Amino acid sequence: MNWQFFLEVLVGGLLAGVMYSLVALGFVLIYKASGVFNFAQGAMVFFAALTFVSLVERGFGFWVAFLITFGAMVVFGVATERVVLRPLVNQPPITLFMATIGLTFVLEGLSQLLWGSQPHGLELGIEDMPLEWLSQNAGINVSQFDLFAALVAGILVSGLALFFQKTRIGRALRAVADDHQAALAVGIPLQQIWAIVWTVAGFVALVSGLLWGARNGVQFSLTFTALKALPVLILGGFESVAGAIVGGLIIGASEKLAEIYIPEFLNAPLTEAMGVSVNLAGLEIWFPYALALAFLLIRPEGLFGEKHIDRV
Question: Is 279 exposed, middle or buried (0-12, 13-18, 19+ CB in 10 A)?
Answer without folding.
Answer: exposed
